Amino acid sequence: MKLFKHCLFIALIAFASIARGEVFTFTAIPDEDETQLKLRFEKVARYLEKELGVEVKYLPVKSYSAAVTAFRNNQVQLAWFGGLSGVQARRLVPGSDAIAQGFEDQFFKSYFIAHKSAGLTPTTGFPGMSGLTFTFGSKDSTSGRLMPQFYIERNLGKRPKEIFSRIGFSGDHSRTIALVQSGVYQVGAVNYKVWETAVAKGKVDTNKVEIVWETPSYPDYQWTVRAGVNDVYGEGFKTRLTQTLLDMNDPELLASFPRKSFVPAVNQDYLPIEELAQSIGLLD
């Protein structure tokens, strides 16, 4: 009987939503290969649609800043952000909230990877990199830019442009790995999850490129929902959305992130990210 009532409730919500022509749209920062992202988030859209009883669409974007802009302009009502992009979005749309994060996102980290030509070896101390070429990921990436730059400046006492002979921004973590592996850049900073997934799939030649240093842990990715969703999709929608994300337990879907589960998140979890971004000039 309880199952019947739940199904009836979802069906009524779906009917009301369709009658009003409402679509719930979400996006995600493009942190790796576009094909992989499309496969992952179209599965997420189908899961949300089934559980929430509203039409759900995934909106792909070309850059981190485009994801933030789509959120600001109400083109999307939910986004899978990194730590920094989430902070940026919530500052632009007051009342928006981080509601869920991957279990691993509570203690995320970045890897510094180096091509063999750099002459660097794995170290627990910070590697000397003066005069080498270096690529970050996206300019707005937490794991590919913010945290690596913070640790570079803290450990070497200089801005990156004063340390490296050439600096690049690859745009995403998959490209960072490819650029360092090919020798276009000697050193790069990469999201540890993307690196480990690429290694597991045989996409990294560890005879050419290896991890030389890893950062201490920090909070990173999260689902952020836009302010006002209850007004559009019905009372209690935000609560049901949050629980639906926390209940995501399909092994295949979780593996595509990859995360073991999703856990609650709140805006305060990302205050350290906001403070660090301000300290190195990435936020006003």
From TrEMBL:
Point out the signal peptide segment.
Answer: 1-21
Q: Which UniProt keywords apply?
A: Signal
Does Signal count among this protein's keywords?
A: yes
SUPFAM superfamilies in the cross-refs = Periplasmic binding protein-like II
> Which domain of life does this protein belong to?
Bacteria
Q: Does the keyword Nucleotide-binding apply?
A: no
Entry similarity comment: Belongs to the phosphate/phosphite/phosphonate binding protein family.
Name of the protein in its database record: Selenate ABC transporter substrate-binding protein
The beginning of the lineage is: Bacteria, Pseudomonadati, Pseudomonadota, Gammaproteobacteria, Alteromonadales
